[in-house]
Amino acid sequence: MSLHRRGFSSRRVLVAIAFSFALCILYYTHLRNTQSDPLPELIPEEDVVFWPTEPPEIWAERAVQVKNAFLHAYHGYERYAFPHDELTPLSNASTNSFNKWGVTAVDSLDTMLLMGLKDEYERALPMIMNTNFSLPANTAVPFFETVIRYLGGLLSAYALSNDTRLLTKADELGAKLLPAFNTESGFPVYAVNTYEGVESGPPVGMLAEIASWQLEYSYLGKITGKEEYAERATLITDLFYNANLTFSGGMYPTKWDLTSGEPYDLHLSVGAAADSAHEYTLKQYLLTAQTDKENLEMYIRMTTHVINNLMFISPQRHLVYVTDMSTYKLEDTRVTHHFEHLSCFFPGLLALGVKMLPLDDLESVGINVEELTRDLLPRDRGGYEALSEFNLTDLHLWAAEAIAQTCYITYADQPTGLGPETVSMRAGGKFGITRWMSAVRAWDRQGRRGPPPGVGDKLPWSEPPGLVSTKERDRATVTRDYGVRNIAYYLRPETVESFYMLWRVTGDVRWRYRGWHVFQAIEREAKTSSGYACVDRVHMKVPVLLDSMPSYFLAETLKYLYLLFLDEDIVPLDRWVFNTEAHPLPVFAWTPEESVAYGITEEHLPSAVS
Ligand SMILES: *[C@@H]1O[C@H](CO)[C@@H](O)[C@H](O)[C@H]1NC(C)=O
Ligand SMILES: *[C@@H]1O[C@H](CO)[C@@H](O)[C@H](O)[C@H]1NC(C)=O
Ligand SMILES: *[C@@H]1O[C@H](CO)[C@@H](O)[C@H](O)[C@H]1NC(C)=O
Ligand SMILES: *[C@@H]1O[C@H](CO)[C@@H](O)[C@H](O)[C@H]1NC(C)=O
Ligand SMILES: *[C@@H]1O[C@H](CO)[C@@H](O)[C@H](O)[C@H]1NC(C)=O
């Protein structure tokens, strides 16, 4: 503070004492419950600018390179695997892990349309039209994967082409999967036997699997006019909205009882088994032309809880990450400090919210913070007060930029340039890990010097790889701030997905450069003579290739890279919503008649809940 620079006067001292006293009262009444961490002494960050300045024309050529990568992967699939599910890119053979309906072809359709690949599209279509969704008989298909890859793929290709044959096929598949909803709660069960029309699976559902289909079924309901599709999403939104989330800070926990429709555990995460359920709260609101306020409320609750409780910053390099935690008893909360590649979608979601929502004026869209916090424990209500010191638009964008940078750094640090599946952050003890919000508050109180905590540009770790002794490895873990926990890169999209969103939302060309580095690493390390392979041992100079090319590599990873480098904005974020498999669906509004027919009425809006 600048107090002593101005010299002393007794009046100023009195004012200062009164001010400190007021601050203490404020601290003890408002912040004590949420913030037990002491505010850290921050070393201001610097922006290490090390990006080249290249003429903007280079990006068009890079988009072409991604298109060629797609063609290489798809032609390998066509030659050695079609009409089976996926190519095995080392042995030139195929696997059938996703219903044997040609998942790579269906998942790739909309990418082909966006890239203008008519020939590949025409070659794929007849097989897709002839697929019998009742085959293979007597085998259960997984509801969630089938919805996001097949149904999402068909719907998106329909939306981009207007080819009604795709709509007919989507309708056929959507109907075949409906038995999944035959549970007491109405949450879908794990699998459906589409031949016999019966559901199967455990009585407890994983969050991501029970809550990542609303976009697909709502849009299917809109374009077919069928109530049985559209009303499901309304029903599920009500279930979540009315669930007792008192002990999870208003955030959905990871396991749910499919009979009672209530939470089954208190594990909170935006990573594996949870991720897309959180994604679909905001996206369902956006897809339905921003009318579904229940989902918007739940998005605000979730992000508030994550920002306050699941985001941390590492001590050496100020790497910000989002992790997961379990509450065993009210006083026994355990944070894992694992950071998953899967969680790297989260910064992109935050960025989308920053672009589309009036986060600094939520009242204008009918969000009342009192309503939002009504059933929460005092410590969680305190979290909302803590955030209210900041402009939420700024805060969400800083969070997005900081986490996405960490996602990038986990790639750039490795000799392969590819990011590991999971890293384990240095937690607690003498290393002094801190909640991100504590660091942000300290940065604010200490005069906002430098970029917000974690937002500053960072150089990759420069020590040579190939460490042998445990001692060396421990030292490396400390200076890098993390250890690599699962050393494989499964050609996943989440990191480049967030780069794309941040590029569109901020216009900062550094996101393109980061994506370009990732693409070059994929070309260098993962390319085989017939496609692209998952890479094991990304932390070694000589990695090992795995005989697998997941369909999402074509549906998502290459699509987001292509859109990142393409100058034209061919899928504007205010007109299209990407499902969790990167299939864009067009924003639509329900007519008043549809709203009544599908139960989307005023009484579902939060303002009417007494
Ligand atoms: C796979 O196919 C590619 C290209 O067609 C070929 O160059 C390569 O030798 C094949 N690999 C195997 C293991 O057959
Ligand atoms: C699809 O396969 C099932 C199971 O073998 C069969 O009963 C049905 O007739 C087939 N449908 C069509 C349109 O071929
Ligand atoms: C599909 O139809 C919509 C609405 O009529 C139109 O705006 C769009 O341009 C059409 N797209 C194609 C690829 O024909
Ligand atoms: C939520 O569940 C807890 C634990 O069972 C219970 O104590 C609390 O009263 C419930 N809250 C509401 C609003 O039903
Ligand atoms: C919040 O921040 C955004 C972006 O920096 C700015 O445009 C907006 O005016 C701010 N809102 C308020 C209420 O200060």
UniProtKB/TrEMBL annotation:
Residue span of region Disordered: 445-472
Q: Where is the active site?
A: 145 (proton donor), 275, 421 (proton donor), 494
Q: Which Gene3D superfamilies match?
A: 1.50.10.10
Main enzyme class: hydrolase
Keyword Acyltransferase in annotation: no
Q: E.C. number, please?
A: 3.2.1.-
Question: What Pfam families does the annotation carry?
Answer: Glyco_hydro_47
Please list the GO biological process terms of this entry: carbohydrate metabolic process; ERAD pathway
Q: List the disulfide bonds.
A: 344-407
Quote the record's binding site residues for Ca(2+). 580
Membrane spanning stretches: 12-30
Q: Which GO terms describe its molecular function?
A: calcium ion binding; mannosyl-oligosaccharide 1,2-alpha-mannosidase activity
Q: Under the cellular component aspect of Gene Ontology, which terms does the record hold?
A: endoplasmic reticulum; membrane
Q: What's the catalysed reaction? A: N(4)-(alpha-D-Man-(1->2)-alpha-D-Man-(1->2)-alpha-D-Man-(1->3)-[alpha-D-Man-(1->2)-alpha-D-Man-(1->3)-[alpha-D-Man-(1->2)-alpha-D-Man-(1->6)]-alpha-D-Man-(1->6)]-beta-D-Man-(1->4)-beta-D-GlcNAc-(1->4)-beta-D-GlcNAc)-L-asparaginyl-[protein] (N-glucan mannose isomer 9A1,2,3B1,2,3) + 4 H2O = N(4)-(alpha-D-Man-(1->3)-[alpha-D-Man-(1->3)-[alpha-D-Man-(1->6)]-alpha-D-Man-(1->6)]-beta-D-Man-(1->4)-beta-D-GlcNAc-(1->4)-beta-D-GlcNAc)-L-asparaginyl-[protein] (N-glucan mannose isomer 5A1,2) + 4 beta-D-mannose; N(4)-(alpha-D-Man-(1->2)-alpha-D-Man-(1->2)-alpha-D-Man-(1->3)-[alpha-D-Man-(1->3)-[alpha-D-Man-(1->2)-alpha-D-Man-(1->6)]-alpha-D-Man-(1->6)]-beta-D-Man-(1->4)-beta-D-GlcNAc-(1->4)-beta-D-GlcNAc)-L-asparaginyl-[protein] (N-glucan mannose isomer 8A1,2,3B1,3) + 3 H2O = N(4)-(alpha-D-Man-(1->3)-[alpha-D-Man-(1->3)-[alpha-D-Man-(1->6)]-alpha-D-Man-(1->6)]-beta-D-Man-(1->4)-beta-D-GlcNAc-(1->4)-beta-D-GlcNAc)-L-asparaginyl-[protein] (N-glucan mannose isomer 5A1,2) + 3 beta-D-mannose
Keyword set includes DNA damage: no
What cofactors does this protein use? Ca(2+)
Q: In which pathway does it act?
A: Protein modification; protein glycosylation
Q: Which UniProt keywords apply?
A: Calcium, Disulfide bond, Glycosidase, Hydrolase, Membrane, Metal-binding, Transmembrane, Transmembrane helix
Q: Do you know which SUPFAM superfamilies this protein is assigned to?
A: Seven-hairpin glycosidases
Record's family? Belongs to the glycosyl hydrolase 47 family.
Q: What is this protein called?
A: alpha-1,2-Mannosidase
User: Taxonomy-wise, where does this protein's organism fall, top ranks first?
Assistant: Eukaryota, Fungi, Dikarya, Basidiomycota, Agaricomycotina
